[in-house]
Amino acid sequence: MSAWITLHCHQTHWLRLNGKAVCIGIFKVTALQPDCDLIALGVSAIGRIGATYSQNAKTLEEYYDALNQGRLPIAWTALSRDDVLRRAVIMSIMCQGALDFESIELGHLIEFKRYFARELEVLRR
User: Fold this and answer.
1) Helix ranges, 27-110 (H)
2) Rounded distance, CA 17 to CA 56, Å?
3) What is the C-alpha to C-alpha distance for residues 90 and 57, in angstroms, rounded to an integer?
4) Distance (Å) of CA 106 to CA 33, 85, 95, 109
5) Residues 15-29 pLDDT 10s
6) Which of 37, 44, 70, 116 has its CA 20 to 30 A from that of 90?
7) Residue 27, SS3?
8) What order of strands is seen across the sheet that includes strand 74-78?
């Protein structure tokens, strides 16, 4: 499966290098495919592999401290079944701009309107 990503400039920094102004961008990566793994690279990067999320150390100091201590500067979180389901819903909306209830139902063995009854009611208000 090929991976399609987009880069969004999160912060822009200007610095001088050899007397020239250089623009350095800090980017946020968004996957255009809802089920691809993302490997987090660099300070505060967020990744996902399978049913997990990871976030790298949030500051450069924390990042280097972890590396200097022989540890990876990454915190992992395993996702519950509910987390995985909600991620699928969010990624469908973000990546396709739409939500196919039947697809979610088949992929997660739920009745969408029953499972998300409370959330659907809030949206109707």
Assistant:
1) 60-68, 81-96, 101-108
2) 27
3) 25
4) 18, 11, 19, 5
5) 555 555 544 444 455
6) 44
7) strand
8) 46-49, 52-56, 74-78
Q: Within a 10 A sphere around the Cβ of 79, how many other Cβ atoms?
A: 15
Question: What pTM value is reported for the model?
Answer: 0.62
pLDDT digits (tens, 9 = 90+) for 75-99: 999 999 999 999 889 888 877 788 9
Q: Is the dihedral of CA 96, 97, 103, 109 positive or negative?
A: positive
**Residue 123 structure tokens:** 């949206």
Q: Which tokens belong to 107?
A: 């992929």
The candidate with the shortest Cα–Cα distance to 49, out of 84, 7, 5, is: 84
Q: What is the torsion angle, in degrees rounded to the nearest 10, for the CA atoms of residue 74, residue 78, residue 82 and residue 87? A: 30
Instruction: Name the residue among 37, 40, 34 with its Cα closest to residue 55.
Output: 40
